[in-house]
From TrEMBL:
Lineage: Eukaryota, Metazoa, Chordata, Craniata, Vertebrata
Protein name per its UniProtKB record: ADAM metallopeptidase domain 19a
Domain (Disintegrin): residue spans on this chain: 256-342
PROSITE patterns reported for this sequence: ADAM_MEPRO (PS50215), DISINTEGRIN_2 (PS50214), EGF_2 (PS01186), EGF_3 (PS50026)
One of the protein's GO biological processes: proteolysis
Residue positions of the active site: 185
PANTHER family: ADAM A DISINTEGRIN AND METALLOPROTEASE DOMAIN, DISINTEGRIN AND METALLOPROTEINASE DOMAIN-CONTAINING PROTEIN 33
Domain of life of the source: Eukaryota
Pfam families in UniProt: ADAM_CR, Disintegrin, Reprolysin
CDD domains in alphabetical order: ZnMc_adamalysin_II_like
């Protein structure tokens, strides 16, 4: 039966008290808490996680539940519970930290046009970010989109202020149906493309197939394919998901304090779960205290029940815009993740850092076409993207019509490349080849068109469009499909405080070069920042971010970019009890929100 819960080896009741909001007529807000009276949410061995996504819900979904507020919230919890279950296999936790139900009118545009709905919701989500800290937001609606689309999300949008979210239709009587769609759209945020033929060997069609299949049906998918896992690894290796590495604030833990829930809360020295499930040699499961002579029990800076030496690297840089962190010697946990402040120069001045990633046209050509690809002549961008059709454009307007690119915005439209490959990567991708004349010379331009069963009805904004944050001119970046001035005021102010001896991190603090001490790089020291932990150099000469970059030649850096490998690409788990097997390069958490719309459609 498709409604049967996922098999688990051990069931544990999850009773969460969520902060919720009901937004009614004229934006009136009813704040309250939602205590799950029906104890219906169960997980296997691994417990829930305190920080999570924010999930929101629309009035249409509200109306589908007969305008029953409690019923609507309960359904959202069921959906979120499934999504979290799916992602645990990837060592990612997706817990719900808040939900908002729009009971009278929608707070953003919600129509049958998915593109307009997505971009309106993402703009609304930027306002939400200021009042509710979260990593990603998902809209759940009862509105039926045009064609076959039941969800949409930007590719590689995770952690981005502008793009970290998606929209989902509550299309099934079974909560696992909407959960499969939401997990799919979140997968796009994580950089996962649709599975092509031969990807999904983990589950047969009769078992539901894989989550990132381009189309889905009964039974619903529950597992990710090897191709999805490869896409996820690639996304993290190039610096994606920078907001997911920080330690959670235990004060945000929902459900109340309890020894044995797997989270170290106030008054506890450790927490390894219930006595019959604890496998930690350093922790007394009965009272959540450390065993005799143990200094610690959890965390990447804890080894053999002892704190690691101050200066031990606990999280290496994940790309050109990331920074390393080091154990402090006083805490078992790695310091919160920091990276270069947006606007910092990377790739030898070719690009700017954006959300911890160094985005270039070249990188995107490599991603679409493979080894050897490079951006086409500027004239290709200007000529092809002036057409305003499916093959050359600057995105779509609210009604869903393709927009022509003005000349100044051409490098923010459809990406144009040079490549010797027969076709772009991906099953549904085809090459759009154009030959133009510039300066009396013929130039070949290669664009990418990704088609679906119904043109324009896929669940991804065009992956052939230049990514938000890509440099399109001196002091300019692509934003909203236009080449806009980038404000570097914060960066300039911060750099001025670093005395020319360091860079600025995402907390707007100086990350000093080797030989200079934080906070302002004006006195001799070992380098690093007040956020990174103390740096120690040993005989193997562990270098700071700047030193490593200087030792890479342009040819070496280019080769690393082309093969998808980044220098220093080492990730450590936080070793939080309850995060499951540590088989992947890192342990991640995502903060999650769900929404519900008003438009009558049922």
């Amino acid at each position: 039966s498709t409604s049967r819960p996922l098999p688990v080896t051990r069931l544990r009741l999850q009773v969460d008290q969520l902060s919720t909001r009901a937004v009614g007529r004229d934006g009136a807000i009813d704040r309250g808490s939602f205590l799950l009276q029906d104890h219906c949410f169960y997980h296997g061995h691994v417990r829930g996680h305190p920080e999570s996504w924010v999930a929101l819900s629309t009035c249409s979904g509200f109306k589908r539940q007969n305008k029953d507020y409690e019923k609507t919230k309960t359904r959202i919890m069921e959906i979120a519970n499934y999504v979290d279950k799916f992602y645990r296999a990837l060592n990612i936790r997706v817990p719900l930290i808040g939900l908002e139900v729009w009971t009278d009118r929608d707070q953003c545009i919600v129509t049958e046009e998915p593109n307009a709905t997505l971009w309106s919701f993402l703009q609304w989500r930027q306002k939400l970010k200021s009042r509710k800290k979260h990593d990603n937001a998902q809209l759940l609606t009862g509105v039926i989109f045009k064609g076959t689309t039941i969800g949409m999300a930007p590719l590689e949008g995770m952690c981005s202020l502008e793009n970290s979210g998606g929209i989902n239709v509550d299309h099934s009587e079974l909560p696992i149906g909407a959960a499969a769609t939401m997990a799919h759209e979140i997968g796009h945020n994580f950089g996962m493309s649709h599975d092509h033929d031969g990807c999904c060997v983990e589950a047969s069609a009769e078992q539901g197939g894989c989550v990132m299949a381009a189309a889905t049906g009964h039974p619903f998918p529950r597992v990710f394919s090897r191709c999805s896992k490869r896409d996820l690894d690639s996304y993290f290796q190039k610096g994606g998901g920078m907001c997911l590495f920080n330690m959670p604030n235990m004060k945000d833990l929902v459900g109340g304090k309890k020894c044995g829930n797997g989270f170290v809360e106030d008054g506890e020295e450790c927490d390894c779960g219930e006595p019959d499930e604890c496998t930690n040699d350093c922790c007394n499961a009965n009272n959540c205290t450390l065993k005799e002579e143990a200094q610690c029990a959890h965390g990447v800076c804890c080894e053999g029940c002892k704190l690691k030496q101050a200066g031990t690297m606990c999280r290496g840089p994940a790309g050109a815009c990331d920074l390393p962190e080091y154990c402090t010697g006083a805490s078992p946990y790695c310091p919160a993740n920091v990276y270069l402040l947006d606007g910092s120069s990377c790739q030898y001045g070719v690009a700017y850092c954006y959300n911890g990633m160094c985005l270039t046209h070249e990188q995107q050509c490599l991603q679409l076409w493979g080894y050897g690809a490079r951006p086409a002549h500027d004239a290709c961008f200007e000529d092809v993207n002036a057409a305003g059709n499916a093959f050359g454009n600057c995105g779509k307007d609210e009604p869903g019509n393709y927009m022509k690119c003005e000349k100044k915005d051409a490098k923010c439209g459809k990406i144009q490349c040079h490549s010797a490959a027969k076709k772009p990567k991906g099953t549904n991708a085809v090459s759009i080849d154009t030959t133009i004349k510039t300066g009396g010379v013929e130039v070949k331009c290669r664009g990418t068109y990704v088609y679906s069963t119904q043109d324009g009805q896929g669940d991804l904004p065009d992956p052939g469009l230049v990514m938000t944050g890509t440099k399109c001119g001196e002091g300019k970046v692509c934003r909203d499909r236009r080449c806009q001035n980038a404000s570097f005021t914060e960066l300039e102010t911060c750099i001025a405080r670093c005395h020319g001896r360091g860079m600025c991190n995402s907390n707007r603090n100086c990350h000093c070069n080797r030989g200079w001490a934080p906070p302002f790089c004006e006195k001799p020291g070992l380098g690093g920042s007040v956020d990174s932990g103390p740096i120690q150099y040993d005989s193997e000469s562990t270098h700071t971010h700047t030193d490593v970059l200087r030792k890479l030649t342009p040819e070496q850096h280019e080769r690393n970019e082309m093969t998808g490998r980044q220098w220093g690409c080492v990730r450590k788990c936080h070793h939080l009890t309850g995060w499951g097997p540590r088989r992947r390069r890192g342990c991640f958490k995502v903060n999650f929100v769900v929404l519900c719309t008003c438009t009558e459609s049922y």
